[in-house]
Amino acid sequence: MLIFELNVKVDVNTLSRELEAARDAVNRATGLSNMAACARWRHDGSCNVIGYNPCSLLSGSMTTNMNHFLDNSEWAESRQLHCVRTANHISEEFETPEDCTSLHLVPFDSCTVVALMDKFDLQGIAAATFTPMKPNGDINTSIVGEYVTYLVENQGVTSIFLNGTSGEGMSLSTAERKKLLEAWLCAGRNRLKYIIVNISCSSITDCKELAKHAEQVGASAVAITSPSYFCPATPDALVDFLHAVSLEAGSLPIIYYHIPVMSHIPFLASTILEAIGNKIPNFAGFKFSDLNLFDASLCMHNSGRRCPLYYGVDEQMLTGMLMGAQAAIGSTYNYLGSKNIEMLSLLQNEKFQDALNIQISIQKHIASISKTGITVPENKVIMSYISGLDMGPPRSPLTACGASRTSQLHRAVDSLQSLSRI
């Protein structure tokens, strides 16, 4: 078996072309056919490509030709193509590193792209992003790059949850959701650590399509909640649904999005966890958007295996983290991310009163707008005002805030200088 390697910075759209070019170049240099190529690719943009030929017998002239190609090819030099050697089995070259768990298999031509993504280990906070829209209601991907810059540079937020409730995902077409994911992946390459995408739909066929797309383009993980029109009658029926979708996601981590106020599922998350058992090998925990902290604790501490929990109620995030949540995902982290990061830092340093003071301040901010929670239209107004990025209107059937309500929201933000001017 002939092995070659190259290291190159690529995006998801360039990867296949680079691999194919590498394979063809080596085929020409060695005279071999059916050379395959694989890649270890991570979110920082680094790509370790390994090519191999499954043939176990290699002539001396093949190796000589290959070495000549390496020494004299400008193309090979620019991509640091190197290291011709032999191996008995391809498994010798593709053992999963400790920091990688997601193995992606993407066929192209006669080759297979094997992308080993960074081990999924969400910590801290992730912003549940809003979907920018034009005045006519079409999605507006043109400001996604600026959105990424604002999150990273102004808020210190480096992970996102895309196409969720805040992103109006259930009001978007599958084509729009794919386009948004691709835009965020492109803009977030080398800048965002994790891009989690919600693939929930009423149709299992659409869920599978979005799962497969997320795996192919390089999302960090997928999240899915239960269909809410025809609801599963039992936890086992829900798990069967989740399992069927998970098969289309390859080895991408699967997060169950527990949001009973929207999904109308009566089952406790802890009951769902029991039903999941070991049926979904790539199950990676819950996005827990519920007030029932007892149920959350049962998920984290009373199951046979510790279940990662990403808490989704912004106004009591500190409590969720004290209970043992691994991270928090929420809409207000789009514009209050830095304050929440400060609060978590205080918590980690056991400065509990200082952390609590920030949580109370955030609660006052939320309560000044609505004691029952901030709606998506209101959040888009606030985000637009604080960030300077036009989030546009919500999509029907949600309605945009009128002029009077918009002014009220602006005044509410202005009255909380310590939180808003960050």
Automatic annotation (TrEMBL):
The protein's UniProt keywords, in alphabetical order, are: Carbohydrate metabolism, Cytoplasm, Lyase, Schiff base
**UniProt KW Cytoplasm keyword:** yes
Q: What reaction is this protein's catalytic activity?
A: aceneuramate = aldehydo-N-acetyl-D-mannosamine + pyruvate
* The protein's annotated pathway: Amino-sugar metabolism; N-acetylneuraminate degradation
Question: Which SMART domains does the protein's record reference?
Answer: DHDPS (SM01130)
Q: Which InterPro entries match?
A: Aldolase_TIM, DapA-like
The answer to whether UniProt assigns keyword Cytoplasm to this entry is: yes
GO MF annotation list: N-acetylneuraminate lyase activity
Q: Tell me which Pfam families the record gives.
A: DHDPS
The protein's superkingdom reads: Eukaryota
Sorted alphabetically, the Gene Ontology cellular component annotations on this record are: cytoplasm
Annotated EC:
4.1.3.3
The subcellular localization recorded is: Cytoplasm
Per UniProt, subunit arrangement is:
Homotetramer.
Regarding protein family, the annotation reads: Belongs to the DapA family. NanA subfamily.
Protein name as it appears in the record: N-acetylneuraminate lyase
Source organism of this protein record:
Eptatretus burgeri (Inshore hagfish)
